[in-house]
Amino acid sequence: MLYFKYFKMNLKKIAQYRLSLLLSLIAQTLTASMALLTIYFLFDRFKIVQGWTFQQVSLSYAVVYLCFSFTECFFRGIDHFALLVKTGQLDGFLVKPRGVLTQALSCEVEFSKLGRILVGIVVLIYSCYIQPFVWTPLKITVLLLMLICGVVMFLALFLIGASVSIFTVEGIEAMNILTDGGRELCQYPVNIYGKFVQNLFTYIIPFACFNYLPMMFIFDMPNVTLFGNILAPLYGMLFFIPAYLLFRFALKKYTSTGS
Question: Predicted confidence band at 2 (pLDDT cuts at 50, 70, 90)?
């Protein structure tokens, strides 16, 4: 596949600067670890926040952080789509016998983010281990769906940002409210926030579908339903459809930079 060919090329490129890669991995690992320590100290002081314990929030943090880091590492090309538009590289993509999205996703792999992924995996394993309940096959399946849904959600947000950049040429900082800001907010279950934020991240940008709603089932909370909670990650993945359609629409409106 084209993606794996680009993957090997990026790996060979980064292998030429091994010390730089190592330092980046250490820095990313320390940054991610500090974020988790902040959550730990918060719960060490207050014990429970809006009914959620540290054990529960650690699982939410691990899922969101791992999903975002995975998307940022392996699909970084679409997040840098504004640069392709600005430099005119997108013109070259359009005349090649491959889809623009495939080429954009493949053109860059940011191996320095592997440190974040490692931290996310370690925290996920730890948070699963410290839970006071027994993991059933259904709960494990729901957790896997949460991870898949999270990657799809962040990829969809990167696609929306790429679509906007076609019209604005430059990437707009407002998209960081949905990507980086959404990641920070949804490290905690969304029900700890006000109604506006809850509704925004449930019905408009459905972060709750791989965060709060399925976690209610995993933690055996009351009023859990099959369609409202267990299958919520499947609904969240549908967010990719309008994001992709917007991307296709934006491509049709694209005008060459002439560079």
Answer: low
Query: Which of the four pLDDT bands, split at 50, 70 and 90, describes residue 122?
Result: confident
User: What CA–CA distances, in Å, run from 178 to 17, 156, 161, 257?
Assistant: 33, 11, 9, 27
Q: Position of tokens 């359009």? A: 94
- Model confidence pLDDT, tens digit, residues 41-58: 877 777 787 788 888 888
CA 114, chain centre distance (Å): 14
Average pLDDT value for the chain: 84
pLDDT, greater one: 229 or 1:
229
Give the contacts of 231 (CB within 8 A, at least 6 positions apart): none
